[in-house]
Every structure is written in C-alpha cells, then in structure tokens.
Amino acid sequence: MHDGVMKAWLESSHLYGGNVAYVEELYEAYLDDVTSVPEEWREVFEQLPKVEGVDVETKHSQVRAEFAKLAKNKHREVVVAEGGQGDPKQIKVLQLINAFRFRGHQNANLDPLGIWKRERVRDLELDFHGLSEDDFDTEFYVGSFAAGGEMMKLGDLYKALKATYCGSIGAEYMHITSTEEKRWLQQRLESVQARPQFDSKTKQRILKGLIAADGIEKYLGSKFPGAKRFSLEGGDALVPMLKELIHRAGESGQQEAVIGMAHRGRLNVLVNVLGKNPSALFDEFAGKHDDTLGSGDVKYHMGYSSDFATEGGSVHMALAFNPSHLEIVNPVVMGSVRARLDRLECESGSKALPITIHGDSAIAGQGCVQETFNMSQTNAFKVGGSVRIVVNNQVGFTTSKQDDTRSTDYCTDIAKMVQSPIFHVNSDDPEAVALVTQIALDFRNQFKRDVVIDLVCYRRHGHNEADEPSATQPLMYKKIKKHPVPRQIYADQLVSEGVLSEKEIKKLADDYRNGLDEGNCVVEEIEPETKHSSDWSKFVGHDWDTEYETHIPVEKLKELGEKVASYPEEHKAQSRVKKIYDDRKAMAAGEKKLDWGMAETLAYATMVEQGTDIRLTGQDSGRGTFFHRHAVVHNQEDASTYLPLQHIKEDQGKFEVYDSVLSEEAVLAFEYGYATAEPTSLVMWEAQFGDFANGAQVVFDQFLSSGEQKWGRLCGLTCLLPHGYEGQGPEHSSARLERFLQLCADHNMQVCVPSTPAQVYAMLRRQSVRPLRRPLIVMTPKSLLRHPLAVSTLEELSEGVFHNMIDEIDDIDAKNVERVVFCSGKVYYELLQERRKQELDNIAIVRVEQLYPFPHQEMADIIERYSHVKDFVWCQEEPQNQGAWYCSQHHFWQAIPQGANLTYAGRNASASPACGYMSVHTKEQQALVADALTIKK
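The chain above was modelled as a monomer; its predicted structure follows.
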C-alpha cells in the first residue's frame, strides 16, 4: 500500500489516534484469550501482519514487567533463554493459566457422589497449548499467578493450577469486568492453591458442626420416625459453614445477620446454629403449642432470633419466618437488613449481613431470584451485598435431570447477571467449604456485592422422610446408600492427621447426644439475647379503638404547607410542575381548597416534622403515576433534584421516596421485610396501577394477610393501589378489591377507600400515630386526584379524624328519604352529580370509607337516621362477582333495619375486570348510576 494511502487510512481508522490505548488493551486481552474480545475485533487482529518466526506476539505489559525486573538486576545481563519473554511457549503458558481461570471449574471435583458427567475441557490440557511434560523443568514467567514468584517451573505451575481450580472448589469469576475484583479473587485462591491451612481449633470446630448436623437428624429420626423434618442429611456442611460465616462476620464488625431459607435443613439450622432449645422443638413434634399464637404454622416455617458470640463481638441473628413459597423470603430478608442498616445509620452494609439459602432447582426456577439480584445494587434496595448459599442436592423434589430443571450449565448462572463471583464446592470437603465461606464474606465486605456459594451435596432421603426416592432416582440412591456421611469422612481425616483420636471424636458425639437428651441449647456460642432489634413492645396489645391524637392546628398546617410548596428560586421547575406548586402555595394560604396531592404531602410533612421516618417506593412514586405527587422537583437546567419534604426542619424525620425497579413481587416483599423490622417508620409501597399488585399476590397471601396469625409478626406496611373505572380497559381499572376482602379475617388488616383529600390525610396519619401495626390496603384514586368536588379545607385536615363512614352531605331531610345508596370510591361523585342534576331529595348516599374491619358502630349510628327506610342499595363500578359486593354484603344486611331489602346496582358479573371500549364503559357507567338512583314503585 502506498505510504500516503496508508497514512490516510490510519488517520480515518478506529486503530489510530485517540483510540490507540483502547485498541492496545483489547489486543492484550486477545493475546490472553481470543474469545475475550468481540468477534469483529478478533477478525481485525487475525488480519494483522505476522512477524517471521513468531507464532504469537508478546504482550507489552509483560515486556514492561520484564524490563522492570531487569532494571533491578545489578548485573543487567540480558539473556533471552528458553522459557523467557522471547520464547514462543511463554505466551502458551500464560494462556494455560488463563484457561484454568476461565474453565478450571468444569473439571473440578465437585460432586460427592461422583455422578456428574463433565465434558472434556481441551483448554486445560498441555498439548492444546503446544506444551508437554518435556517442558516441566523449564521455568516460565507466570504473570499475576499468585502461587509463588514471577517464575515457576511448568510442572509446579501445572500442579498448582489443577490444585487451585480443579480440586474441591470450582471458582467462576472471570465473567466479572472489574480487574480489581478478579485480581483480588485470584490472590485469595491461588496463594493457598485453594487448600486452607486451618489450625487444630478451627478443625475441631468444623467437626463439631458436622457432628451436630448429623446428630440432630439421627435423633429426630429415631425419636419421631416418619415425621416430616426435611432433613439436611447429605448437606451437613451447611451447619459448620453458617457458623464459620457468623464467626467471620463478627470479626469483621457485623452486628446483625438475617437468614432466609426454605424448609430443607431448617430445623437443623434452628437448633445447631441459632441455638433453639431442642426441648422446644421436640414439643412441636409432639404436637404441643402455645394457644396465644393464633393459627400458628408448621415447625419448618418458623423463625427465631438469638445472639451469637464471636471474637469480634456479639452478632444478633434472626432467621426469617417464611412460607413454603420457595424463594419469596429472599427479598424479605433484604428489606429487613435494609431497615437495620438504616437504623444503625450504616450506608455501606458493614453492620448487618443478609444470608439467603436456596435450593438448586428453586434458585434457577423462581423468577423472584432474578428480581432480587436485579435490585441488589439499586439505590432503594442495596444492602451492601448478600451471601447466597445454594444447598445443591441435585434433585428438585423428584426431578434430577438437568435438562428438566434448567437451561443453564449451573443452577447458579443467574448470579452472573450482576457479576457475582460463584464458588462451587464439594460438601464432603468441609475445609474447602470453610475456605470459600471466608473468601465469600470477605469479598462481600470489600466490594459490597452479592456472592454465591454452590454447596454441591446430595439428599439422603426423599423430599420428606416418608418419600421413597429410589422410585425416581434409582442409580443416585444406590450410591447414596453406600456413601459415608460427611461427619465420618472428616473424622477419619482428622484421625489420620493426628488432630484427634477416635476416642476423642466419640466423646464429642456423646456430649452432643447428651445435650439433646437434656433439651438444652447445644450451641456453645449462644449468649443471653439483648435488644439488638427495634422495640415492638409499645405496639403490642392494641386494637383499632386505641385512642391517639391526630389534631394539628390550622396555623401549623399553613406553616408546613408553605414549606412543602417551596423550592429554591434558582431551581427551575418544569412549567406544569411550577403550576402545581403555585397552586399549593395558594392552598397553604387558605386561598384554595386542597386537592389530593397537597393533602397527602401535608400528611407526610406533619409526620416528618414530628420525627417519623417515611419510606415510599413504587415504579413512579417520586412524581406519581398520575402526575399528582411531585415530591421530587427536577431542575430543568441541570437535572438536579429537590425534595421539599426533606427540608421541613433540621432534626426532622427522614423522607425517602424511590422510583423502584420494575418489579412488584420482590419490591413488595422487600418493603414487607423492612416494615417488620422497623415499626416506628411509615413504610409504603405504591403500585403503578392497582391491578399490577397481582404480580405480588404471593406476598399479600403468604405474608401481609396471614403473617400475624401464623407467626405473630406485626407489620404496618401501607399499600397504595390506584383503583377506579375510567374506561382504560381491563388491565388499568381494578386493583382487585375483592381479593383483599377475601383475605380479611381476625382483624388482620385494613382495607380503605378514601374519597376526599382530608380522608387520605387522616388515614395516613392514623396509620403512623395510632400505636397499632397492621397492614393498610388503600384503593387510591385516579380521576379524583383532580376532581373539582374532591377537595378539602385546611380546617377539615386539622380535625385529623378518619371517618370510616360518611353520611349524606347535602341538605336532605332524612324523614323524606325512601332509598339509601351505599357506595365506596369514585362512583360516589357520579351518583352525587346525577342526583343533584335530577334534584332528587328522597335518596341519601352513604359512603363506606373503610370496608374492613367493617365499621359496624358508625354504620349503626348513620342508619338510625334512616330506620324507616326499607329500600337499600349497594352501588359499585366493579362487576358483580368482583368489588365489595360478595365479600361485604353480609355486613350491610346486618346493618339495615329489620324487614328492609338490599339490592345491587352495578355491572353484571364478568370474567374480565372491565370492558376495553370507552363507549361500552360509558354506557355501563351511566346504567349503574341510573339503576342506583331509580326507585321502582
């Protein structure tokens, strides 16, 4: 090519000028591993001119390192010998190191049963790289390999590589983009060749954990034969792993740890890690229970808390209560940890640790896992990383074939989406388990990211102890029956090493068995529990009628209103937002009545002014899906933000509002976990549209509605669910009010449908100020946010009382009333306007603002005015089989005068929540309003 043409091509090429450093970095990566660069770059590099006599170029970084080494050499004699930088095999050696880092885990000895069929990995073989055993005595430069010095004999290097990456630990971390994180992991693994050097004390601690794990299962199996216990047998290493994790956590400054796990091994962990008294567990097996705990739950769903002594101080442990719904407890744990971190004023996550324990089929199969991983680094939900342990017994209930349980090589591949390092480890090598446990926690603490330990084990029995597993896994269970238990394998190892004698080991086992017989705590680290968590005592024993003070003087409301309607002059708000804030100033001054957004904001202002912390999350919560809240003002010039509610006064409560990830299930579960760990804050979750809550139905079913009955867990979480029929179709109309009412019993939660700004103000304040913590489900409005009739005065807000029922507001003589219409929500205003239009004075409209617990006394007080009326109607927008009609009509029948009749006015029953055509919607809406207001003679 002509020099001028070449110059012109270079100047226009991506290989020239400012891109040179970037291209050089890519080329260095290409020399390490050709697959590590995009295909288009591989093609570029393969087309580069070859240097005669050189198969693969030497990396510049290696050349620089060699010159640096030579510079320190006093003799400075330059010899390019075999194995040196000029030797073509040198590059092959570095590629061999890289191959083990990338793919060594595929040849690791991970399966205790030896039934994994792993494909041959040619990249890990010498001849693939043009090397052989003839080169074993030749020294090569090993770059960053951390097993020794800069130069190693190939034989020693190859042995070290196989020990590090193909032993009992299979490390996956080369998918991480951060060089710092990869180098850190390489140093920790390669420096010890994945073989820890534990002292005698640590080895004995590990053995005691295995003896305990095996001992409790054998004890329960003999004492309660046939009873379900979902044993840990085969995965016994989980117990010493967790104890090592807590010890390490305490030494690193952690003050609290929250554990979430399903039923497999839960009883074992309760007794042998958290220190639950065996006698209490035996009583549960025997059917004894505390009559004060509501409906209760099975023993392998129950939680527990205790204090665990470590050399670094006491660690408060909490095992989360959770149902069988597999992975749903994980975001609950994260929320609980976030609440503890906020209480400890620790943003880094260094004072509280989340630990989640998964099944191999569940972590790959449940979408909640992906949602929780996705949340892990976001502002609203980060907790400084979590330690995730997979008890990989290679069977999902009865399914063991990999191509039936997942579409990935490993069950843990989902963790790669957030670049978590993954340690696969053979559970029959408890020292390797302890090593990866230490590395995992240290990585989490150093880099504030999730880390995964895949504990590859087996399940000695069926899914439960009554199952016959050989019916579906005959070959696996032939091996399991012959396979020694982990305790015996490690005990034999310690005897051979001279750490303990067989007599000493037998005494350890006998001592543990005696501890079980005595029914006392068998975990020596457990100490008397202190109050690490928040104090719930003042919220226990209260009911709905507990007195509380909510009155705020009008002048104080005006003062707070001015503050929430203000932002710095230099902060340029968008024009529509500016109009909203200008209107709020007028509302604060008493010049305009308050709309929904202003009343809601004032409720928050009064609470933070009094020191209450507020946390609100949802997919559009900062602005509000329907453009009503605008708690966050965005500067139109530099995109900076200003939150007036964070500037009420100096020592105010925190106000946090987050636009969340696009998730319902995991986010709501996170907020549930937060609310169960922090009773003094107002914690709220807002659905983008109310019907989106159906994506989180498991959280409502398994936690919010039944957590207090099953586990005695109080929770004051508030859920804001936009609801109302505006002609927007089936998926943007109904928050499925009927589903929440179906879940209501035992005074387990509140279901409210406020219809005025004053009502939402009082309802939110009541939820915070009243010393009662139960979930609040709110059907919030859409069109009512700006409805001209849905307004309130400052005086109405100042009263501070939420009215469970609202009687007729127009000047209608009760004696003339022939029909009473009950309703809730937006339809009230349509009924009101139509009645006024027709000038009807014989129909009264009564609003039910709280559908559960049903306000029988307030209803009775109102109905007394209409005791002569025989015609009562329930009017709703929802189809007849939905809404409140089926779930609440028994309350209406109970309330109306004897001999009176109750009829229904609303849409016909429907499989769909709403129609999809505006014209049909309008016709149906007009018909139901007319039906409610037409008295048939």
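The radius of gyration is 34 Å.
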